[in-house]
Amino acid sequence: MYTRRLLASLAVIFCLSSAAAVKADVIAVWNFNDSNLIVDRGQGTLTTTANPANIIFVTGTTFNAAMGDPAGMALAIQGGANLQNNGSILELRVSTVGFTNITLSRVLQRSDTGFFDVVTRESIDGGATFFGFSSGTPNTNFWSGHHTTYFSPGPVDNNPFFTVRIILIGATTEAGNIRFDNIVVSGTQIVPEPASMILLGAGLAGVAAEVKRRRRARR
């Protein structure tokens, strides 16, 4: 009976492992509904070199919201006095250990005099060196979605030092701003190879057989 139960449990383990192999999971989420830069789900850090006086929070959106998050708030960075925040950086760092097929999605909107150029670069060593280069102008009349899928298998997979740097350029007034909301990093969990699961199953079956043999020996 004990052996049967253990083998039945093993079958459940195999089923759950197969399901996990195709499940996409959220790694980190920033929805800004608490009006700060602290990650709201998962683990990660978000920092900026912009003057703190020009970091504000405004009405957000449900566009790209994760897990039914309400519109809440959104992060806004202003040009600042003497346009000091032109060239400022918004940088997120997330460990992707245990995940592959990494994606980064977020929504942006800018005011008429806000930063018209947003440059995005990536790093796999925590910011010592950067690769890639993308540039774009956010919309002024509505939120626009931006979605990046990283080549897999690749260096962004299973990486403890994945970093994304966003450089803000081109604000023309002090109050001109760019808004960010619902920044989501997601991926697919890495599960053991089938061969490893077979070895695990064989090991558990061996344990069950040994337990059964010892019980018989006691009778």
What is the CATH fold-level name? Jelly Rolls
Query: For the residues shown, what is the average pLDDT?
Result: 86
What's the multimeric state?
single chain
Instruction: Report strand %.
Output: 35-45%
- Report the principal-axis shape: elongated
The helix/strand class is alpha+beta
Number of individual domains: 1
Fourth-tier CATH superfamily name: Galactose-binding domain-like
The total strand number stands at 12
The number of helical elements comes to 2
- End-to-end Cα distance, whole Å, is 16 Å
CATH architecture: Sandwich
CATH class: Mainly Beta
Task: Characterize the biggest β-sheet.
Answer: 7 strands, antiparallel
Could you state the order of secondary-structure elements as H and E?
HEEEEEEEEEEEEH
Which range best describes the helical content: under 10%, 10-25%, 25-40%, 40-55%, 55-70% or over 70%?
Answer: 10-25%
Low-confidence stretches: 2-22
Radius of gyration, in angstroms, nearest whole number: 24 Å
In short:
The chain has helices spanning 2-20, 194-218; strands at residues 24-30, 41-42, 45-48, 55-59, 73-78, 89-94, 99-110, 117-123, 131-136, 144-149, 162-169, 177-189.
Structure description:
The chain is α+β, with helices and mostly antiparallel strands and 219 residues long. The protein has one domain: Galactose-binding domain-like (Jelly Rolls, Sandwich), CATH 2.60.120. Helices cover 20% and strands 37% of the residues. It contains two helices and twelve strands, in the order αββββββββββββα. The chain has helices at 2-20, 194-218; strands at 24-30, 41-42, 45-48, 55-59, 73-78, 89-94, 99-110, 117-123, 131-136, 144-149, 162-169, 177-189. Strands 1, 2, 4, 5, 7, 10 and 12 form a seven-stranded antiparallel sheet that branches. Strands 3-6-11-8-9 form a five-stranded antiparallel sheet, with no helix packed on it. A hairpin with a 7-residue loop joins strand 8 (117-123) and strand 9 (131-136). Helix 1 (2-20) runs antiparallel to helix 2 (194-218). The longest helix is centred in the C-terminal third of the chain and has 25 residues, at 194-218. The two termini are 16 Å apart. The model is unreliable at 2-22 (pLDDT under 50).
